[in-house]
Amino acid sequence: NVALVGARSEVVRFLPQTASLFAAVGLPVNLRNLKFENMRISKEAQEGLSSLIVEGTIVSISNRAVEVPRLRFAARDVVGQEVYTWTALPGRSILGPGEKLDFRSRFVSPPETAVDVMVRFAGAQDAAPAAK
Hints:
The chain is mostly beta strands.
């Protein structure tokens, strides 16, 4: 068990579904060595069009330079179902140890059913950058 906990990053790398198990027992795993901070979602209207604005900061928690992947945004309805997704490139592709990178994305004319937005880093399952 000690080896399993000590090597949890490698376990999650090969068995991604175990990440939620480790998180549930208070041992989260962050393979990207990046985290989101100061997330804000707001709505605004401009020239008769409504927009969702998503802003935040990406922070490197590594002691070495790390790659910043494409961001994936998912507008969700009241039950958490994705009603629209889009991706965006970050302002920089590499962050040094402890560096921060602010980001902002604007989604014009979101579906009426969209009540929040989930932000995460895009992975292999998100290979197609087109919105759905």
